[in-house]
Amino acid sequence: MIYIGSSLSINIGYKKEEVSKMSKHDFNDLSGKKPIFLLTIGNTETGKIEGITAAGEEPELTDLTPPADAEFLYYDKCRSIEGVPITPDGIPTPAVLSKASLNLIETQFLALDAGSNVKAKAPTIDLGGSPGKDIRKPIAVEKTEEILKNAQLIGRELSTDDGFLMLGESIAGGTTTAYGVLKALGYDTKVSSSLPQNPIDLKEKVVQKGLKNSDIEEGELKNEATKAIKMMGDPVLAALTGLTIGFKGDVVLAGGTQMGAVAALLKEKDALDSVCISTTKWILDDNSSNLRELTSEIGINLINSSISFKDTDFDGLRVYEDGLVKEGVGAGGLLNYAEEKVGKNRLLDEIEETYESLRKK
Amino acid sequence: MIYIGSSLSINIGYKKEEVSKMSKHDFNDLSGKKPIFLLTIGNTETGKIEGITAAGEEPELTDLTPPADAEFLYYDKCRSIEGVPITPDGIPTPAVLSKASLNLIETQFLALDAGSNVKAKAPTIDLGGSPGKDIRKPIAVEKTEEILKNAQLIGRELSTDDGFLMLGESIAGGTTTAYGVLKALGYDTKVSSSLPQNPIDLKEKVVQKGLKNSDIEEGELKNEATKAIKMMGDPVLAALTGLTIGFKGDVVLAGGTQMGAVAALLKEKDALDSVCISTTKWILDDNSSNLRELTSEIGINLINSSISFKDTDFDGLRVYEDGLVKEGVGAGGLLNYAEEKVGKNRLLDEIEETYESLRKK
């Protein structure tokens, strides 16, 4: 565990405005180790259910967003699409924030494919998976064991005493599958969303249907993490779990609810040592999700970036303050680490420059 | 450049027995940095020309050896074939030596695919290439630019202050394509072989035909490295060149003649800084190849492992002393580095154990 002092006690009953006063991030325990940032992309048919995800409003977006995010991190521009992934509301992908962070820090970086419909036009590591099925089908992730094994291998082979692992994801519909997995494992949880009005009722219906069609009760898979992924999850959850298990050293799960699900899976696999979650301020500000309670219940440390766009001139960034798009592509971890390394002002400048250069293209 | 003192002056006119007295290896300049070992696999139709390569005597062997080598390094066992790749003469792949070395050192490891006929049953990074054509055809490596770019990207993204890059290869027919590239660049060179009687005449004929059919004279591509790869090379040469260019830091090319060709390509691209070649004792003992003269002419340092099997009980290892199979799969670099880290005796024990466990399977 990476401890941040007494922050866990501060967390109970916190008020929204207190978020800014909490110990935001603590990479100090990582003693100067360098990050190895891995972005895992994938798809789940669940992301195409109408009304489930912002990307889902345009099905092509669910397919093209993950590879485009990977390409943006590698090349500073996407190759599978023009511009960058943007929600129908006009919010640019958090890959913009992640890329800006990567520009300022020293890290190894690779993209991995756990099962995407459209392959990235960039060199990725194929984890031998395939796109996930709608979780209302009996089996959602056919190649769960294969992905877990391959991811574990990669995690192991990238291990080094001088580095810690930071994991990000890009998969549309991933909060619904995360919710499904958490329910199967028995957690009483709420999940965030990329839509203005969190489609809680719809997600609840989808997950309940999924549990029923897989013939499992809530909490029935409490001791069967692999099966929980297989029945109710997505390929990316399998990959993130495997990578963490394989890596010998500290792991920072960079994300929100989806990383909460990974933590729950790791707990069942008794692999939660030296793992923490780092997310964005916007995730914690979201009243319709309860990540802090979830991580507290699981017993994993949660740290967060303090980056806020309330003072930016750019509408496309300030809209993050509305909490529509809140996380993704490892933003919660990369922003946090970059801020610690170079300071908030420099990071904000870089984000604005990165965003501005997109608008000029 | 990684210097090993006055070894270059010792090299002129060296006698075979002097090899054992030279400064064998010098990773001291790498100041405690950890290796990042990348194995690049691929194929070239040139490897199927009858009589060109030991693997070529069984065409399936040319296709299956590279992926099997990658699998052996990842899993301790191959998945594409039973046992391990063995020449018709009964000599086990140098992947056995490389794997033993990997077992004893701390390194990150990944396999990359530059263009193989049979994909490895293991997670590799796809460099967007395709198998190389017979070099007697006008164009040998159609996707040269793509492979160079992708490899450069990976080299860059894996860069870290704490590490140095070590590159190995597995491709049948690679010494012939290396010879072709060197001739196109204007080097007067001899090359080694995996066959008992180095088929020099045949290689010469193939390369001359290749130059003619690509409409180039010897040395005509002296200033056109990319074209030299395209006309006379193979996908793996493109990958190794790109990886080295992209990596920010020291690079050890772990191999023999093929790495000599990579060095020549890097020189043309003005990218030879902080690069050296580390090969096996058997390569330097081979009178039919002149790697020392070549590296001296190029201006790149050549170091070597001193590992010898003259005292082993295992025939399948002692046969390496006959100089039939001499190098490959990064053996020349991994043996060298492992020996420096853990000592010769421990390394020899590990190699024998690895080999013996194969025989039991």
Automatic annotation (TrEMBL), chains A, B:
Coiled coil (residue ranges): none
Gene3D superfamilies named among the record's database cross-references: 3.40.50.10210
InterPro entries: Nict_dMeBzImd_PRibTrfase, Nict_dMeBzImd_PRibTrfase_arc, Nict_dMeBzImd_PRibTrfase_sf
Keywords noted in UniProt: Glycosyltransferase, Transferase
GO molecular-function terms, A-Z: nicotinate-nucleotide-dimethylbenzimidazole phosphoribosyltransferase activity
HAMAP family, per the entry: UPF0284
Entry similarity comment: Belongs to the UPF0284 family.
Protein name in UniProt: UPF0284 protein BTN85_0733
Organism: Methanohalarchaeum thermophilum
